[in-house]
Write a structure and sequence with these properties.
Helices cover 84% and strands 0% of the residues. The protein is an all-alpha fold.
Length: 347
């Protein structure tokens, strides 16, 4: 009896798997306009499912619990968006005066370098540090998210329907899968995803709050804008914290000079290292963590697939994939490779 083709040619199975993966990636890229709002709605529904469940334990009817949670989330986002829009408009109006001050600092620096015998031949690098240049960099990073949030109504409608479905979804799976249904595994997946997204969102909020308080204390103008930027870009691994810090540092430079700017840079470094490398691992544990290589690759891959929005969602999406793989007997080895420690991952 002849052996199966995949047994005789083990490399063929790998090639087929890679081909399937490339097809999936291509489909994700092509369907970006449909999938991104759906994924955002899914994440919001996951975050909102816990309050809905708590309200139901208090004997609140499902429809009232879902609508109440949805209205609270919408109100928070609209309130923050309105406040942020006003701050952005004020900052945009103030950009010309910051540019004038930056030009003065640039001339002072060139004069100092020339007095030391250093010939300045090009100012292209300095020009990239202008306040408007970094605002354009942040704007390009956030533009994809803003365009996606233009369909906010659609996102929240999908989220509400998802919240309605969560109450009966387990029963539907039970009837659909029959004896193959594993309630504990399904519940474990849901709990792990909710735990990760909740903790990650909490640490991002904590980072934004610390940054806002720090900038306010240092006298940096538009501290609310920089706090929100730090909150949002903290989802982006590696480069997010750097991008969030640079505009505030440049603004401190134009307002107060080099010593305060260096102090602001050190403050940002302490906040980001403290939250990302100290508090976040304590809350999550190593099991709900990704290896640095996987984090970097996820940033590159999801950024290529969905642009700036993909960069913002890269770590949450990769973490959800890892959690799903952990609860699969066939693909648990991939979850082990994606995590920090094999012993922690296989628990």
């Amino acid at each position: 009896m002849n052996a199966p083709v995949t047994a005789r040619y083990p490399g063929l199975k790998l090639l087929i798997s890679m081909a399937c993966l490339m097809i999936i990636i291509g489909g994700l890229k092509v369907a970006q306009s449909i999938l991104v709002p759906f994924v955002l709605a899914l994440f919001l529904a996951i975050l909102g499912s816990a309050p809905v469940r708590v309200l139901k334990t208090w004997r609140v009817p499902k429809i009232i619990a879902v609508l109440f949670v949805a209205l609270v989330m919408i109100s928070i986002l609209i309130g923050v968006g309105t406040l942020l829009a006003g701050t952005v408009n004020e900052f945009t109006k103030s950009l010309p005066q910051y540019s004038v001050r930056f030009d003065e600092l640039q001339q002072e620096m060139f004069a100092w370098l020339q007095s030391k015998g250093v010939e300045v031949t090009s100012a292209s690098f300095i020009e990239t540090l202008r306040p408007e240049s970094f605002m354009e960099l942040i704007g390009s990073t956030l533009r994809g998210l803003v365009s996606t949030l233009s369909s906010t109504l659609l996102i929240f409608i999908i989220m509400v329907f998802m919240l309605f479905e969560t109450a009966d979804f387990e029963q539907k799976l039970k009837y659909a899968m029959g004896e193959a249904f594993d309630g504990e595994r399904i519940k474990g997946i849901a709990v792990d995803i909710q735990k990760y997204l909740g903790i990650k969102t909490f640490t991002c909020i904590l980072t934004g709050l610390f940054v806002s308080i720090f900038d306010f204390t240092m006298g940096i103008e538009f501290w609310l804008l920089w706090g929100f930027t730090a909150f949002l870009l903290n989802y982006v691994p590696f480069i997010g914290s750097f991008i969030a810090a640079v505009p505030a540092v440049i603004l401190a430079l134009t307002q107060f000079g080099l010593p305060i700017a260096l102090t602001v840079a050190i403050g940002y470094l302490i906040i980001n290292v403290g939250v990302s490398n100290f508090l976040e691992p304590i809350f999550m544990g190593r099991r709900l963590g990704l290896s640095p290589l996987v984090v970097f690759l996820s940033l590159v891959v999801w950024g290529w697939i969905w642009g700036p929005v993909g960069m913002l969602l890269s770590v949450p999406l990769s973490m959800v994939v890892k959690i799903l793989l952990e609860h699969s007997e066939e693909f648990r080895w991939l979850a082990v490779l994606m995590g920090h420690s094999p012993k922690e991952t296989v628990k």
